[in-house]
Specification:
single chain, 4-stranded antiparallel beta sheet, about 0% helix
């Protein structure tokens, strides 16, 4: 079983920045990702990183150019640096692991392990 623990959420003004962390323990997954969800809306993928090799990344169009996903293999931690935050970025952010692989980038069905989430609120 993979255990994921997120941290780093909080309240920030529009245009500001936050950095989320996710500590990974247990079986090493093939991919790690960040998803987010707002009440009344479906969970959406934000960013993904391959856990091996050179750490290939993928971003949702809504955050590309503003968010950066990275990893620190020595610390078993994946990060999400969020810049130029907007009120519409407000959501609960979840760290997720794809243990058996996924067929498409940020495919929800390919992610079987989830953290408890961390709240991000962006005020105007």
């Amino acid at each position: 079983q993979v255990q994921l623990v997120e941290s780093g959420g909080g309240l920030v003004q529009a245009g500001g920045s936050l950095k989320l962390s996710c500590v990974v323990s247990g079986y090493r997954p093939n991919y790690l990702a960040w998803f987010r969800q707002t009440p009344g809306k479906e969970r959406e993928g934000v960013a993904e990183i391959y856990s091996g090799g050179d750490g290939t990344t993928y971003y949702a169009a809504s955050v590309k150019g503003r968010f950066t996903i990275s990893r620190d293999s020595a610390k078993s931690t994946v990060y999400l640096q969020m810049n130029s935050l907007r009120p519409e970025d407000s959501a609960i952010y979840y760290c997720a692991a794809s243990v058996y692989g996924r067929r498409y980038p940020l495919a929800k069905n390919g992610y079987s392990q989830w953290g408890q989430g961390t709240q991000v609120t962006v005020s105007s």
